[in-house]
Design brief:
By secondary structure, the protein is of the alpha/beta class. The chain has 15 helices and 13 strands. About 30% of the residues lie in helices and about 15% in strands. It starts with 9 loop residues before the first strand and ends with a strand.
Length: about 375
C-alpha cells in the first residue's frame, strides 16, 4: 500500500428556491467545498445570483424546477432532459439536496439518479425508496442554515478550521459612490411575499421617523420596486430603487450601520455581510427557522398573531397588524440598540449556534441505500 488518500469527490449542492434560501445554504456549501475537489450549486433562476456570491462555489447550474416557487415552471420533457444532461456531463460523485422543512427532496433525487450521480443525501420524512443513499432526519426546531449544515456534516463534510459557520458572501464592492460617505441605515421595504413586508405607507412613516431621529436613511429595492422605493424614501431618504444588482446591494448593506428589512433575501444578505438587522418578521413562517442568522438582530412584529405558521402569502387580517402595528418607537429603539458603539465593539458576528446544541459528528457516506441518521 502506498498510503495515498482517495481523491476528493466532485460534489453537487442543490438549493432550488429563492435568493434568501441560497444564502442560508452558504455554510453547508462551504463545508462541502472544504472536502471536495469541485463544488457546483444547482439552483433556480431566483437564486442564481445569490449562488454566484457564495464562497466555495466553482460553478452555478440553473434549473427552473416545476415543483418550486410562487409561479412554477411548466413540466416539460425538454427541460427535464436538459437538466439531466447538464448534471450528467459534470460527473458528480455525490450530491446534497437541501430543502426546507416542509419540502420533499425526492423529485430532485430522481433527476440526479437519472443523471448518474453516484450518491445522494437529503433530509426526508417521506420514504425515499432507492432515491436516497443517505436519508437524514432534521432535528426539531432547527434553523434552515443550521439544518443544511447538519446534513453536510452527516455526509462527512465539515467547515474548515476558523470558519464560524455564519452566512457569508464573497467580498462586496465599494458602493460609496451610490450611498455617499456619511453613516447610514438601510430600509428595504419590499419582499417577494406581501405578507412579509410593511405596507408602503407604514414604511414611509418609518423612514421619516428615522430621519427625524438623526439617521441618514438609504432605501433599497429591485428594478421592479422603483415606485415603492420612491414612495417610501419620500423627501427623507436616499432612493436607490433599481440602482443595485444583488452584488452591489451586498456592498450597500455592508456599508450600513444597520438594516431594517423584512423576512426576505436582503435580510439574509445583510447578515452575510455582517450588518445588524432589525427584522420585520411576519409570523406566517417561524422565526426560529427563518430569522436572521449569525448576526446581531432584533425581531420586530407580533409573533403570536393569528396568522402564525399559516404560510400565508397575503396577510389574511385587516390592517396587517403583525407588522404595521410595529410603532416608530420600537423601530428607533431597535436601530439604536444595533448601532450602539459599545455593542458593536463586542463583535458583529455572534456564534451562529450559540443558542443551539451543536450537531453531532456525522458519519462518513456509506453504501447502505436509504440509510438513516
Amino acid at each position: 500500500m502506498n498510503g495515498s488518500r482517495a481523491p476528493l469527490p466532485r460534489t453537487l449542492v442543490v438549493r432550488l428556491d429563492s435568493a434568501g434560501d441560497v444564502l442560508l445554504a452558504g455554510p453547508a456549501v462551504r463545508a462541502a467545498a472544504a472536502g471536495s475537489s469541485y463544488t457546483a450549486l444547482l439552483c433556480g433562476p431566483q437564486g442564481a445570483d445569490a449562488g454566484r456570491l457564495l464562497p466555495g462555489v466553482d460553478d452555478v447550474l440553473v434549473y427552473d424546477a416545476p415543483w418550486v416557487g410562487l409561479d412554477p415552471a411548466p413540466v416539460t420533457r425538454e427541460a427535464t432532459r436538459q437538466v439531466i444532461d447538464t448534471v450528467a456531463a459534470r460527473g458528480f460523485d455525490r450530491a446534497l439536496v437541501l430543502v426546507s422543512y416542509h419540502q420533499s427532496p425526492l423529485p430532485t433525487a430522481l433527476l440526479l439518479k437519472l443523471a448518474g450521480v453516484g450518491w445522494t443525501a437529503a433530509d426526508s420524512e417521506d420514504y425515499p425508496g432507492g432515491l436516497l443513499d443517505l436519508r437524514h432526519h432534521r432535528r426539531p426546531h432547527r434553523h434552515e442554515a443550521a439544518a443544511a449544515l447538519d446534513l453536510a456534516r452527516a455526509c462527512g463534510f465539515d467547515l474548515p478550521p476558523g470558519d464560524d459557520g455564519a452566512l457569508r458572501v464573497t467580498t462586496p464592492p465599494d458602493t460609496s459612490a451610490l450611498t455617499g460617505h456619511e453613516p447610514y441605515v438601510v430600509v428595504h421595504p419590499g419582499a417577494a411575499v406581501p405578507a412579509r413586508a410593511w405596507s408602503p405607507v407604514r414604511a414611509r412613516r418609518a423612514v421619516a421617523a428615522l430621519a427625524r431621529a438623526g439617521h441618514r436613511v438609504v432605501v433599497t429595492g429591485g428594478p421592479r420596486e422603483r415606485a415603492l422605493t420612491e414612495l417610501v424614501a419620500g423627501r427623507h431618504g436616499l432612493d436607490l430603487g433599481g440602482a443595485t444588482d444583488l452584488r452591489r446591494l451586498a456592498g450597500v448593506l455592508a456599508g450600513a450601520r444597520a438594516a431594517v428589512v423584512g423576512n426576505t433575501g436582503p435580510g439574509h444578505l445583510a447578515a452575510a455581510v455582517g450588518t445588524p438587522v432589525a427584522c420585520l418578521f411576519a409570523p406566517v413562517v417561524p422565526a426560529e427557522r427563518w430569522g436572521p442568522y449569525g448576526v446581531r438582530h432584533v425581531l420586530l412584529g407580533d409573533q403570536r398573531e393569528r396568522c402564525a405558521d399559516s404560510r400565508a402569502r397575503t396577510c389574511p387580517l385587516p390592517g396587517h397588524p403583525c407588522l404595521d402595528g410595529v410603532g416608530d418607537a420600537e423601530v428607533l429603539a431597535a436601530v439604536a440598540e444595533l448601532t450602539d458603539p459599545a455593542a458593536d465593539r463586542a463583535g458583529r458576528r455572534p456564534d451562529p449556534e450559540s443558542a443551539l446544541p451543536h450537531p453531532p459528528t456525522g458519519r462518513a457516506p456509506g453504501t447502505e441505500r436509504g440509510a438513516t441518521v
